[in-house]
Amino acid sequence: MKTENQRAWFFVLPVLLLVAFNALVPIMTVVNYSVQETFGNNVFFWQGLDWFENILRSDRFHAALGRQFLFTFLILIIEVPLGIIVALSMPKKGFWVPVCLVTMALPMLIPWNVVGSMWNIFTLPNIGLLGYFMNDVLGVNYDMTQQPISAWITIVVMDVWHWTSLVVLLSYAGLVSIPDAYYQAAKIDGASPWKVFRYIQLPKMKTVLTIAVLLRFMDSFNIYTEPFVLTGGGPGNSTTLLSIDLVKIALGQFDLGPAAAMSLIYFAITLLVSWLFYTLMTKDDAQ
Amino acid sequence: MRKRSLIPILYILFLLLPIYWLVAMSFKTTQEILGGFSLFPQTFTFENYRVIFTDPTWYWGYINSIIYVSLNTVISVCVALPAAYAFSRYRFLGDKQLFFWLLTNRMAPAAVFALPFFQLYSSVGLFDTHLAVALAHCLFNIPLAVWILEGFMGGVPKELDETAYVDGYSFPRFFTTIFLPTIKAGVGVAAFFCFMFSWVELLLAKTLTAVQAKPIAATMTKTASSAGYELGLLAAAGTLTIIPGAIVIYFVRNYIAKGFALGRV
């Protein structure tokens, strides 16, 4: 049991100061902008909640938000089951375990813009490996810069390539923590592989899977660099996800007010959905 | 058993294909890349790498990145250690709220903070320094480090602390000579994660720097747009960015699975 000790605050103080400096000052700047209008020269006018209303009513925001949810949904529905399947079929001990783990973690350590450039080079029609294979060997018309559907497939496959390993490593950590005795007991009872999965492996993986789903949700919902480098949001606006649209408004058009209001709405949605996921996935534990 | 090992093998092949292509491209000449498809480099060349290692704007990009990433890792782990200890051992006013607030910073889209960060760090005179990027990356790395370390510390029984105090250890001496060695795996994993997320982040690093502390990733994007299609050079620069990550991951290979579970299995 933890003991009550208010002096513990001194231990937390450095963290609090550093994070507050980085989080509170910028977020207050954003809040400040979101209720004002400026025509440059540091002259600001009170605008009230107009920007928020405009953003919430604008078709552009709805479209970007829709694309963002579609992207995150596809990512989760592919990466989580795939990650679990790979983790289940990995060896539990021996020489190959560290080899598997290190190679699998490799994509996550590549800078995000390099991931984008790498997939760009990989998918170039006629000279990239995938582009050549699709167009010249399979005869499928595949060009990311022209067809929205190709662009979508590419950013989803890229993210699966980049982040499925996170789910694999987390599930694997949960799996190796299961004592052998559990499997032996299941064998004696003649349990089918599905039953072993459902009643032994899945419950043991629950905590780590919660972390995996939460991290994957937050990171895919905030994704910016990789799709920006790969498609630039195009062709047209077909892969303009929320972050990309936000940066376009903030730095491209320098509309600080609307961009700030959009930032706050965006942040609020991320927080709300994360909280929903978290309460839903930990509901059973509380009971 | 044979059929089962097919899945990881296929998966790893899928992971390695784009990496192979990047490395293969880096050994090709620009003419060969644009000339058509070839699975292996026909005219094997080190020219792209020679350019990077002789041009200061290129190799300083790597040095800058490594400086701010190391700085960030040290800062994050050092301030996270006492905080994680407090969270894992004591109850205090507002502890749960504080912990949750820390985690919410992981959820903030970097795009939201880009412009305010630029203004904040310009106003305190840190713009275009390594320290600015290192401090900015603390936003998401400190919460993560606290989270990981708290997980690992939770696994250490409280009796260890109590026995040490009974034996007459002062807190600083106990923390450095007994507690730290016990959770060194956790410290390694936390440092690895800080290194990883600072190394791969580009948006903030690019926003906060101009010349003096420009990260390699920014050098790459500039080259990609200004020099047109220098694909070979871009591929070589990309290949080199994989190496530090691969080295760091080798050191934590035995803890990596547990580490990714943030010590919570």
From TrEMBL, chain A:
It holds the Pfam family BPD_transp_1. GO terms for cellular component: plasma membrane. The chain crosses the membrane at residues 9-31, 69-88, 95-112, 118-138, 150-173, 260-281. It is a multi-pass membrane protein. InterPro entries: MetI-like, MetI-like_sf, Sugar_ABC_transporter. GO terms for biological process: transmembrane transport. Keywords: Membrane, Transmembrane, Transmembrane helix, Transport. It is found in: Cell membrane. Residues 65-277 form the ABC transmembrane type-1 domain. Its main location: membrane. Belongs to the binding-protein-dependent transport system permease family. This is Sugar ABC transporter permease. It comes from Phaeobacter gallaeciensis. The lineage of its organism: Bacteria, Pseudomonadati, Pseudomonadota, Alphaproteobacteria, Rhodobacterales.
Automatic annotation (TrEMBL), chain B:
Belongs to the binding-protein-dependent transport system permease family. InterPro entries: BP-dep_ABC_trans_perm, MetI-like, MetI-like_sf. The lineage of its organism: Bacteria, Pseudomonadati, Pseudomonadota, Alphaproteobacteria, Rhodobacterales. One of its GO terms (cellular component) is plasma membrane. PANTHER family: ABC TRANSPORTER PERMEASE PROTEIN (PTHR32243:SF52), MALTOSE TRANSPORT SYSTEM PERMEASE-RELATED (PTHR32243). Keywords: Cell membrane, Membrane, Transmembrane, Transmembrane helix, Transport. GO terms for biological process: transmembrane transport. This is Carbohydrate ABC transporter permease.
